[in-house]
């Protein structure tokens, strides 16, 4: 198998992983792998050049887009959709143990959740904090 095909497969896998994590970091690495695929197609024998150019592209994208994303989040009128989850009630679908993930259903959506408490299935919880894809919850009755 030629190197550009391997780079293209790596870019596709990273893109799929990015769609599951929504962090943007894997997107930049995916774009770096895509650029490395183009370099591999143009210069098939220069493996080191492919790796270096792919890494440089990923690093440049990470370095330049992080301040832009931060500026966007602090701009006037921007509201993170995840902040509206804080304070909402949910139902535990998969039990949560301290230090391990469980699953909580809020409205029609399910979220990976953590807690400092052991919370069983079908118990009501309140969302305390939201990370990128994981929420932190506590038992509902301790809150009332």
Description:
- The protein has a five-stranded mixed β-barrel with strand order 1-2-3-5-4.
- The model has no long low-confidence stretch (mean pLDDT 87).
- α1 runs antiparallel to α2 and α2 packs antiparallel against α3 (47-74).
- The protein folds into two domains: 3-75, no CATH class; 88-139, Beta Barrel (OB fold (Dihydrolipoamide Acetyltransferase, E2P)), CATH 2.40.50.
- The chain has three helices and five strands; from the N terminus they run αααβββββ.
- 45% of the residues lie in helices and 21% in strands.
- A hairpin with a 3-residue loop joins β4 (124-130) and β5.
- It has helices at residues 3-21, 25-42, 47-74, and strands at residues 89-94, 102-106, 109-114, 124-130, 134-139.
- By secondary structure, it is of the alpha+beta class.
């Amino acid at each position: 198998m030629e190197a550009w095909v391997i780079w293209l497969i790596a870019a596709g896998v990273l893109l799929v992983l990015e769609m599951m994590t929504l962090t943007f970091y894997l997107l930049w690495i995916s774009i770096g792998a895509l650029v490395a695929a183009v370099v591999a197609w143009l210069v098939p024998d220069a493996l080191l050049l492919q790796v270096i150019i792919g890494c440089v592209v990923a690093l440049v994208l990470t370095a330049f887009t992080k301040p832009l994303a931060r500026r966007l989040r602090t701009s006037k009128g921007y509201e993170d959709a995840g902040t509206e989850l804080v304070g909402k009630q949910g139902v535990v679908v998969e039990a949560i143990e301290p230090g391990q993930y469980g699953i909580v259903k809020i409205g029609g959506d399910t979220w990976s959740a953590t807690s400092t408490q052991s919370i069983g299935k079908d118990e009501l919880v309140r969302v305390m904090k939201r990370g990128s894809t994981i929420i932190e919850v506590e038992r509902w009755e301790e809150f009332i």
